[in-house]
Design a protein that fits this description.
The chain has about 500 residues and is mostly helical. The chain contains 23 helices and five strands.
Length: about 500
């Protein structure tokens, strides 16, 4: 089977699209076969799906809007959360293939570049498990660069409009998309046709359309800068040294180290499969290799300036992934430039992604379903369904509001009670109307992290501010529910309280 698929890809590289479509269908099924606890980004999307608003938290709203629309049409379930994620991931790979086809003359090189994404752990593993905003950003980067390259090659009103559309959507995906947009201006300016394209009056159409798309969220952003920037800036400055000199050294060092960590598996695999011709090809150049080189250098300079300007020392690989996932296209452009025939290497290379297509779903299926083998439970294994079923059956009431204090609990509890409004103190800017009666009491729920199941101070403060001091004297209960797929004696402790109107 693997041999036939490998030969098919060599003969008909476009078959990579159907291969990837099947792969993400399998990933969707795998997610449904995992325990139904939600990880952090999944939980956030389940929670935010209650609203369709101009802004939510420290990330732009594009993915939130997409997920909310899916939930509005099909309802909230693990299936709708997973289907939305895997559809966007498939579109990332599909658009990447289309981008590669824009600059690579041979479809086989484009297929090699696309399947090379399965050699980047942050993409084939982390993006599959827990990234949302980063994933949609990858999609918009592909669309944006496709539009830019088409405009460089054959400008038209439609191509300039495509640039504006992709630019606007990119700004709604993640704020650091701005770095790609600014770097693209530098790369275009250095292209032989670039200056003529920038001074073309049709470029005003691109700018105007992008601003129009971003404007509604931009107005929200102006009034909510603290919400949009506070949490991210706090993460960037975590564990920062006290002296400026140490910051200037530590930030750039971590930046360079992450580049090596992210790209090392791909470079190693290319070195093994393509051998010396790969390393020799890095000395070659074409118009399009220089375009990507200018893009990469401009992004690196902008990131380093940002690191120095704000003293950023805590970097995460997901922040650099959108700038480095383009490297396989660049590598293939280099090999194409010196005249390497992809047929000479493709069969050997395709072994790697075909093996990964089998191993990745298998690993994702085994890890949370057999947590005792690995000595640690994951977010998948938290028994929110069992907890909700138990406390609702005990009280014999459906809550009019569920109130919790954490991020992970928010979406997980809403997944169990999708028709009940839910609020979380972690996202205290997100408010929702609710019914509070003797038949629809408020349910407060939280994870117990120590031996005490007392009402958390933040939840008590919420009661005082929203219900009144007289409601703070409530009957706090606790229960322990076994982990999903865990040992019977391994349990998660929940605290909860029902609040009835007086």
């Amino acid at each position: 089977m693997a041999v036939r698929m490998r030969n098919l890809l060599v003969r008909k590289p476009d078959a990579v699209i159907w291969l990837l479509a099947g792969y993400f269908c399998i990933q969707f099924i795998v997610r449904l076969l995992q325990p139904h606890g939600l990880r952090f980004d999944e939980s956030q999307q389940a929670f935010f799906s209650q609203w369709l608003t101009l802004g939510y938290d420290s990330q732009p709203p594009l993915y939130n809007w997409f997920q909310s629309i899916v939930v509005w049409v099909f309802g909230l379930s693990l299936a709708t959360v997973s289907a939305a994620k895997n559809l966007v991931l498939f579109l990332v790979y599909l658009s990447y293939y289309k981008l590669a086809r824009e600059v690579l003359e041979d479809k086989l090189f484009a297929a090699i570049a696309t399947l090379s994404l399965l050699t980047i752990p942050q993409l084939f593993w982390e993006a599959q498990r827990d990234l949302t905003h980063t994933v949609v950003q990858l999609l918009t980067i592909n669309l944006f660069l496709c539009s830019v390259i088409r405009t460089l090659k054959t400008p038209s009103v439609a191509s300039y409009a495509f640039v504006g559309l992709a630019l606007g959507l990119g700004m709604l995906s993640k704020y650091n998309f701005t770095l790609v947009a600014v770097a693209a201006i530098a790369a275009v300016w250095l292209h032989p046709n670039g200056r003529a394209r920038i001074i073309d009056r049709r470029f005003l159409l691109s700018i105007g359309l992008a601003l129009l798309i971003f404007l509604p969220h931009g107005l929200w952003l102006l009034h909510n800068l603290g919400i949009a920037s506070g949490r991210t800036l706090g993460i960037m400055e975590q564990d920062a040294p006290q002296t400026m000199l140490a910051k200037l050294v530590q930030g750039p060092f971590k930046f360079l180290r992450l580049i090596v960590v992210i790209m090392a598996p791909t470079v190693i695999i290319y070195s093994i499969v393509f051998g010396r011709p790969f390393w020799r090809s890095l000395r070659s150049g074409t118009v399009w290799t220089r375009f990507f080189e200018a893009l990469f250098v401009a992004i690196a300079i902008l990131v380093l300036v940002l690191i120095v300007a704000i003293g950023m020392t805590s970097l995460r690989d997901r922040w650099l992934l959108p700038f480095l996932f383009l490297m396989p296209i660049y590598f293939c452009l280099k090999m194409q430039a010196v005249g390497h025939r992809p047929e000479d290497f493709a069969r050997r290379f395709f072994v790697v992604p075909l093996v990964m297509i089998v191993l990745i779903p298998a690993a994702l299926l085994v890890r949370p379903n057999l947590p005792t083998l690995f000595g640690r439970y994951e977010a998948y294994n938290f028994p929110y369904g069992g907890f909700v079923e138990q406390v609702v059956a005990e009280e014999q009431k459906t809550p009019g509001l569920v109130m919790t204090d954490g991020w992970l609990q928010a979406g997980n509890l809403h997944l169990q009670l999708p028709d009940v409004p839910l609020m979380s103190l972690f996202f205290d800017n997100m408010k929702i109307g609710y019914e509070w009666t003797s038949d629809r009491p408020i349910l407060m729920a939280w994870l117990v992290t120590d031996s005490s199941a007392a009402l958390p101070p933040q939840l008590r403060e919420w009661i005082v501010q929203n219900l009144g001091e007289q409601y703070t004297d409530i009957n706090v209960k606790s229960t322990a529910v076994p982990y999903l797929r865990g040992k019977p004696d391994d349990k998660v402790a929940f605290g909860y309280a029902w609040i009835y109107p007086k």
